[in-house]
Design a protein that fits this description.
Strands 3-4-2-5-1-6-7-8 form an eight-stranded mixed beta sheet, sandwiched between helices. It is an alpha/beta fold and 274 residues long. The protein has helices spanning 19-33, 49-53, 61-73, 80-94, 116-130, 145-148, 166-181, 201-214, 227-235, 247-258, 264-270; strands at 7-13, 38-42, 96-97, 102-105, 135-139, 157-162, 188-196, 219-224. The mean pLDDT is 88. The two termini are 16 Å apart. The protein has eleven helices and eight strands. 46% of the residues lie in helices and 16% in strands. It has a single domain (7-270), classed as Rossmann fold, CATH 3.40.50. The radius of gyration is 19 Å and the shape is globular. The protein binds adenosine-5'-diphosphate and magnesium ion. Magnesium ion is lined by residues 19-20, 44, 48.
């Protein structure tokens, strides 16, 4: 399937609920069931995604931007245009091109002061880069700054991950409300419940769905707690290597189908280009 469309999907939620795990499992599903050109972006400065994917990262975009900032302060870069060119060049250098998908680690910018220029250029460059892929998956940080800074402004689908805690549920509601406040208009927002006790999923699903609907949020599906995920993480093995019949893998396959990531018609509808 070649969609020649771009879809940007971001994965948000409270810390530790499973954003990086869900991003990895969604990537696994897309690799297994589609021929999409894929870009995966680790937008969390903590950078856990490379470990879950087993990708060695030599330089993050943030490190490149920090160096640029040092050079701007030192006055060794004269014109604004050349600053932008250089940052763009470094972003492409930080891009890791794999056989099956490309990967970009945003990392963090260091030092004090305003990074407005650097941040603005980075957001612009991300827009340019994502246009080269059918689907971009963004693994976001736990905080809400990415919303208030409008890093998400070109995101089409916002996935909010929750676990069974009240804190995670409340965080999901806050994320949705903040997005509205700062006028980021996602085409779709879905909640993915993760790490639920496998034996109780059906029992919990109805109640959860109702509580989410009361907050004008929609449940995409529930991913069970799964020991094999913990095992793989412990051994440092890539979650992409989980077997096809793993219950968490199967749950994410179903979610991806439900939210339209595996079907061209649904995707086009989502993008309003049908
Ligand atoms: N469905 C699951 N079953 C078992 N362990 C999980 C599951 N989802 C996440 N975990 C574990 O929870 C921890 C936090 O997950 P992670 O994806 O890093 O969260 P986040 O990116 O939101 O901070 C990890 O150690 C991961 O192995
Ligand atoms: Mg994470």
């Amino acid at each position: 399937m070649n969609m020649r469309q771009k879809l940007v999907v971001s994965v948000s939620g409270k810390g530790g609920v499973g954003k990086t795990t869900i991003t990895t499992l969604l990537l696994r599903t897309l690799l297994t069931h589609t021929k999409h050109q894929l870009l995966v972006v680790d937008a969390d400065p903590v950078m856990n995604l490379p470990a879950m994917l087993n990708i060695p990262v030599e330089m993050s975009v943030g490190e490149a931007a920090t160096q640029l900032r040092v050079d701007i302060d030192a006055g060794t870069i004269p014109a604004a245009a050349s600053k932008q060119d250089r940052l763009e060049g470094e972003v492409y250098e930080a891009l890791i091109e794999g056989d099956r998908f490309d990967f970009l680690a945003m990392g963090r910018t260091e030092g004090e002061g305003c990074y407005c220029f650097v941040n603005r250029v980075l957001t612009q460059i991300l827009d340019t880069i994502t246009a080269n892929y059918d689907v971009t998956l963004l693994d976001m940080s736990a905080g809400l700054e990415h919303l208030s800074r409008r890093t998400d402004r070109n995101v089409d689908v916002l996935l909010i991950v929750i676990d069974s805690s009240k804190m995670a549920f409340d965080a999901a509601v806050r994320i949705k409300e903040l997005a509205k406040e700062v006028h980021i208009e996602f085409k779709r927002i879905w909640v993915i419940a993760n790490r639920f006790p496998p034996a109780k999923i059906e029992e919990l699903a109805k109640d959860l769905e109702k509580r989410l609907n009361n907050e004008e949020l929609e449940l995409a599906g529930i991913v069970p707690a799964n020991d094999q995920i913990a095992e793989f993480n412990l051994k440092g093995e890539s979650l992409l290597e989980l077997p096809n019949d793993n219950p968490a893998v199967l749950a994410v396959d179903k979610i991806a189908r439900r939210i339209g990531l595996l079907s061209e018609e649904l995707l086009l509808e989502l993008l309003g280009r049908s």
